[in-house]
Structures are given as C-alpha cells and as structure tokens.
Amino acid sequence: MPQILLLAILLLILVATPKTSQADPNNPKVRAAIKKALDYLERTQLRQGYWEANNGQYKVAMTALAGNALACEGSTTTQGKYSEQIKRAVDFLTQMSDPNTGLIGYSKDYHYMYGHGFSMLFLSQVYGEEENEERRKKLKEVLTLAVKFCGNAQTKAGGWGYVSDKDGNGFDEGSTCITQVQGLRACRNAGIPVPREIIEKGKKYIRGCMIKDGPSKGGVQYSIRGGGARPAITAAGLAAMFNAGDYDSKVTKIMLEYCEKNVWPGSARVRHFGHWHYMHYYYAQVMYRLGEKKWKKYFDDIGLQIIRKQSSTGAWNEGHIGPVYTTAINATILQLENNFLPIYQR
C-alpha cells in the first residue's frame, strides 16, 4: 500500500475516533485515579473502623467522608470490593451515637456539628441499601436520634454553629449550617422523619447570609451577621439549596451567577485558596445536577486538575487538614457520575 494512502487512512481513523472526555467515567485516567484513591482509603482505615485528619483530629467527620467516597464506588456494607471498610465505618459511627442526646461524635470536640452532619449524610445513604436487618434497625434508630439532636441544636436564627445552640451560646455560621441542611435532606430522602420546618429555617438562614446587591451580589457570607462573600460557602450553600429542592428561585439564580464569576474554572475572578477542595466538593454536585452539557464542560477542567495533583500513594497531600480529607473529597467528585448515592443523583 502506498505510504501516502496509508497516512490518509490513519488520519481518517483519528478524526473519526471520538475524544474521551475527562468527565467520562470510562476514561482510563479517571478510573485509575479513582482506584488509587479508594485503595489509599482502604489502607489507611484504622482497625477500629475510623479515619482521622492530621494529628488524630476529626475522626467522625473523616470517617463519614471517607466512607461516603467508598460508597460512591457502589460497594455497600454487604457487597462490593470495599464492603468490609464501609461496614466498619458504619459500625464506628453508630457506636459514636449518644443514646441520650443523639449526637454522633465527641461532645468535647469543639467542631462536633461537622462530624454530625457528614455522618447523617453517609449513614442515610447506607441505610437505603442495608440488607442486614439488625444493622438496618440500628441505623434507623441512630438517624432518628441524630435528626432530633440536629433540630435541638439549631439556633433561633435558623443556623448551626460548630457546636449546638446550647453549647455555643447561640453562635451560628454558614458552612456548618449547610452541612446540617444537606444531612437532614439526605435523611428525609431515605425515609427518616425530618420536620419540614427545620430544613426551611436552615434554608432561610442561608438566604439571609446572601449579599443582595453590589459587586458581591449573590455571594454567601460567613454568617448572617456578615463576614463578606465567600466563594466556598456560596458553592456549598447552592448545593444545599439544590438538595432541599430549590432549583429555580431568584435566590439560587443569583447565587449561580456569583459562582460563574468566582468559582467556575478559568473565570477571571477565580482565586485559589485554602478551601478549594471544600468548594469544589459542593460546586461539582451543583454542576452535575445542572445536566450533561454543563457537567462535562466543568469536569473536563476540574477532573484534569484533580488527577494531575494525585500522589503516587493515591492520596492528595494538599491543605492543612490532611490527605484523608482531600482524598475523600476528590474521590467523591470523580465518582459523581457513577450515580450510586441518592443525595448526588440528578
């Protein structure tokens, strides 16, 4: 065959072959990165079933986030490659539930509401797929108590702080509030009774934190008392509003516009800062819910950024909290299209 004809055929094959998107779950680079990340989490789980951040901190929150990332793969407490790790994480968190108060966590931890909120999220996702009758009964009991504790911990303004309203003397702020709203909504979706007014008060608090006009219009502040627009909290607030069924209101549209300018990859005003992973953990959920076209455009950029920074161990070693935190978050973002967990589904 003449060389020029062979070259022409090769060019036609290259042109006809569709380019694999970074957002495509069948992309070999994405699959490899996910496997390395989940294997890292599998290796680093402690014998007692928990994970921890730097210096042994945040055991409850890290366990919920890492367990959630493993569950995104499709494994449950009884089936799948990571079933043993998920089962041990569930057992640890249910043991951490205080039968008297409903708190999932350590009462002496000055950030216990984060762990409580993330635990509600993770355990509610497991509850829907739990086949073991005894464990399912225990999960229902723990989640029912957790919802009650969350309602009692809510401040008069409708938000939540790092600790309960009583322990924190009424202090509240946006990021903890968002964690509770998403956790409560996940419980409600799983069939756990959640009083509607608790979620509605939480949504009202998020709306109250939003800047109504000016150059930062649509940005969500640190708290209802002020603190300036925060891109990370705005992205998280938007995800919480979406989870609570608020997709098309004026508030969410304004928040989306703010995020387009301050969070969207490549935007002129985007700044890299300490809460990048937290921000994109939530913003990725929003982009995924907005449909295939928006999601692929977003993830072709963010997915590549994430994969490039992964270490040889499978972890991501950025930030001050520790590799379990960043690895759990990045692994969750990379697996959203798996569509296994109801809280992230379209």
Offer a concise description of the structure:
56% of the residues lie in helices and 2% in strands. With 346 residues, the protein is mostly helical. The protein has a single domain, classed as Glycosyltransferase, CATH 1.50.10.
Give structural notes.
The structure is a single chain. The protein is mostly helical and 346 residues long. It has one domain (34-344): Glycosyltransferase (Alpha/alpha barrel). It contains 13 helices and two strands, in the order ααααααααββααααα. The protein has helices spanning 3-16, 28-44, 59-71, 83-95, 112-127, 133-153, 174-189, 196-209, 231-243, 250-262, 276-289, 292-308, 323-334, and strands spanning 221-223, 226-229. The protein has a two-stranded antiparallel sheet with strand order 1-2. A hairpin with a 2-residue loop joins strand 1 (221-223) and strand 2. The longest helix is centred in the middle third of the chain and has 21 residues, at 133-153. Residues 6-19 have low confidence and may be disordered.
Q: Tell me the span between the first and last alpha carbons.
A: 51 Å
Radius of gyration: 21 Å
Helix content: 55-70%
Q: Biggest sheet, in brief?
A: 2 strands, antiparallel
Low-confidence stretches: 6-19
Query: What's the number of extended β-strand segments?
Result: 2
- Average pLDDT reading: 92
Measured by DSSP, the beta-strand proportion falls in under 5%
CATH class: Mainly Alpha
Number of domains: 1
Series of H and E elements? HHHHHHHHEEHHHHH
For the record, the CATH architecture stands as: Alpha/alpha barrel
Q: How would you classify the helix and strand content by structural class? A: mainly alpha
Main-sheet strand order equals 1-2
